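Sequence of Adenylosuccinate synthetase (Aerophobetes bacterium).
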Amino acid sequence: MNIVVVGTQWGDEGKGRVIDLLARKVDAVVRYQGGSNAGHTVVVDGEKFVFHLIPSGILHPGKKAIIANGVVIDPEQLLKEIKDLKERGIPVEKNLYISANAHVVMPYHKDVEKWEESLRGKGKIGTTGRGIGPAYVDKVARRGIRMGDLLERKTLEEKLNLNLKIYGNLLGFSYSKEEILEKFLEFGKKLKKYITDTSLLIYRLMEEGKDILFEGAQGTLLDIDHGTYPYVTSSNASAAGVCTGCGVSPRSITKVIGVAKAYTTRVGEGPFPTELKDEIGTLLQERGNEYGATTGRPRRCGWFDGVALRYATRINGLDELILTKLDILDKLDKVKICVAYRYKGKVIQDFPNRFVMWRECEPVYEEMDGWKEDTSKVTSYKDLPDAARKYIKKIEEIGKVPIRLLSVGPQREEMFTAP
Ligand code: IMP
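Predicted 3D structure, token representation.
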């Protein structure tokens, strides 16, 4: 089986836990897009691990952890993660593989991003500040530095010459070429043993009939093409990103699993039709501990958006959904699900595809009774309160996708199957 796990909202759906759980059943876990803007925490036997780049599958003995070509890599961050894992006894050298064609996040990417955000003023994207957007800009502009280039002084120097001219002469940033060159060649030396042709590696694994999990970072609504542009990240976070991001055929994907939180959150700026700026929003934020894993920023919170889920089902071709953090809603008298939008007085069923529309859309809600019971310790679907089961059924109906797994509470064991 070759399974893709994608976020169906604006990221932070709890994919980390889901991936950690599914990783036990596969032979390799692959990251296909994004960079150290992503962040997830996995707790194993009370020990906390924070990952930004390395797939958390690395924690499972014998599983390959692959960072494919679609990812943009900050080598300093990657080396930090490797060091941390090694110090804690994880055999990274045996299981980590990095694509020679993954692009490198350079110091000027972070500087230019900061500058551009300041130019945007009130219209800023609210990025994670990790240089992700500018790194992808260089990739598309065909001047990007790839991981494999860190192994060849001449190529790296040539590319740096061009880039520093562009960032220096055109944008006015000034850097010491020698300093960057030596620093990044040193990164290359340290990472050489991991750098390989990951497309071929994945192909060979598939040929051997191994099971592979493709781990999406961020979420469908942050996809560069299909998200709420321009308030998105700079890669294809949806399932389609797997093919270009790994060099695998669309025919090889056997299953696409979406992950959604039982309510909605968004970190950074941009449209969010079901956002709650009241005490319920605050309650969700506090009970759900909704603070960004990478930047620590408080996440904006709101009701579940069924229109957005239906969109994610369509864009990704979801086979099934995993619903997380249901217990965060336990204390509410009433819960609401957005079932359509109202735009210029008209009710629309489909997720709009233009910025002005997202901004002006008003959610049409269906209100349901809350369950007012502690579900954080529930371990089977039949033990959920009736009202919670109705809520889950409604999400399935609106989102046009069956829910297969549910999670409550912070431990990875606390996940159970829906009927
Ligand atoms: P960037 O990816 O740093 O360029 O940020 C672009 C947008 O994506 C911002 O709104 C970020 O907050 C958001 N974003 C990026 N990565 C994540 C993530 O892992 N979770 C949630 N939001 C993210």
